[in-house]
User: Fold this.
Amino acid sequence: MAEETRSRLWLMRHGEAGSARVDAERPLSERGRMEVSRMAAWFAETCFGGGTAREPNRLRILASPYRRAQQTASLMAKPLGIKVETLEIVTPEDAIEPVIDWLMSQPAQDRLVISHMPLVAELTGRLVEGDGQARAGFPTAAIASLEAEVWAAGCAYLQGFHTPDNLA
Assistant:
């Protein structure tokens, strides 16, 4: 893939959430905050530190409007000094087709999108395998790293899949 036209997409499931009367208001649990903090340190160092650093100013961090996703995004953005944007189309009930359409309409830019199950698993499956039903397990605070020139079904390459428990 040509460096100028390819971009990277990190799909992340929010950290473990506590309970609330309304699903959209569920906050991160203490364990969830710890999971995400661990992932944030790893992400900042692995993707934007060391000798193979990507440019943080090329990264956009987008999150579901749900509280747990917004809290996850804030923790992920903090070590990078990046502003979090809300992406309304990545809630647990949303379909993946509008997300793919949105990705295709965007310029080549790296993005970290923080969302929920089943959307993160279905979107990963559709972009990599061409099949939204190809769902892999997606633990809380896990990140799938994808790269593509075109964000369409079956056109992305899975570069890695990391969870708080499998970090080096």
In short: The radius of gyration is 15 Å. Strands lie at 7-13, 59-63, 84-86, 110-115, 143-148, 157-162. Residues 7-166 form a domain with the Rossmann fold fold (CATH 3.40.50.1240).
